[in-house]
DNA sequence: AAATTCGCTTGCGTTTTGCAAGTGCAAATA
DNA sequence: TATTTGCACTTGCAAAACGCAAGCGAATTT
């Protein structure tokens, strides 16, 4: 059902084949920065993803080892989504997107203040964040 | 015709609104690493982009200030495409994609050897490459 | 027992993609 | 000069993906 067709051996191309669409990295963002973890939480994000698209992207990311589904500790009706190591490793890339956007868009102050931290010591920020995510 | 609808103020979302599809970053890649600059050159890349998609992405990237069209020095029939500062600033992000892919895919040796350089001194690599691109 | 929450799935109309062919202008060739 | 070739797109159309609303089964709450 969810077959991955690699267009070439290029690293950019292969990466885009997995998460190169308008939604996947927003799911990763939520998992990374907002700590949102349930299906319903993703739906609450500002961008308003459609339920079927969300389901297909979660499936795609899970198939490709970027996220995992876990039982929710509080309830059997809920599902917890979490980044894998492979997903956490997208952090440097996510930070660079943020820094690029910081240069060319007007960002919310909460994000600007986070980026102030990043700019002070990028490696330290990444190291700290990775620990907190795994 | 090419209206940009921002889904939210999130930097990831805003960035994806511009280049968050399966093709745009491959165009940026060609401009960045292969020095391909004409319309025909893009078509020659391994991924085989369709002509109409190429035209629409070039338009999108130009509208958003990531690339510029220039007269080709050799001929009026040809067009030269080049990264702007905004486009060159995507370099750190492109490198992080490469590094992520290096960890999870098997890459061609030419690219692996480039990444060896990158890993030795990332900032130096970026600095050098930026100069060469502008 | 009934209503609500949760994580999806389904249907369906609209948009985007992918492929092939065509167009107009510039440049090379005959 | 006439014709062919090359280049940068544009157009038409079928297929796939998207976006919205509604529905559905299992778990939880009332």
Automatic annotation (TrEMBL), chains A, B:
Q: Where is the HTH hxlR-type domain?
A: 10-109
Q: Which UniProt keywords apply?
A: DNA-binding, Transcription, Transcription regulation
Tell whether Transcription regulation is among the UniProt keywords.
yes
Q: Name any one Pfam family assigned in the record.
A: HxlR
Q: What is the protein's name according to its record?
A: Transcriptional regulator, HxlR family
Domain of life of the organism in this record? Bacteria
Source organism (scientific name): Pedobacter antarcticus
Quote the InterPro entries the UniProt record gives: HTH_HxlR, WH-like_DNA-bd_sf, WH_DNA-bd_sf
Instruction: Report whether RNA-binding shows up as a keyword of the record.
Output: no
MF (Gene Ontology): DNA binding
């Amino acid at each position: 059902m969810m077959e991955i067709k690699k267009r070439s051996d290029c690293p950019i191309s292969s990466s885009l084949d997995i998460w190169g669409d308008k939604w996947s990295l927003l799911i990763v963002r939520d998992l990374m920065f907002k700590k949102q973890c349930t299906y319903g939480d993703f739906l609450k994000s500002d961008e308003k993803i459609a339920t079927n698209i969300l389901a297909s992207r979660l499936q795609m990311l899970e198939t490709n080892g970027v996220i995992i589904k876990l039982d929710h500790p509080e309830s059997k009706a809920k599902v917890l989504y979490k980044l894998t190591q492979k997903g956490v490793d997208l952090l440097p890339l996510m930070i660079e997107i943020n820094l690029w956007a910081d240069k060319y868009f007007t960002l919310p102050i909460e994000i600007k203040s986070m980026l102030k931290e990043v700019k002070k010591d990028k490696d330290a920020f990444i190291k700290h964040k990775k620990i907190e995510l795994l």
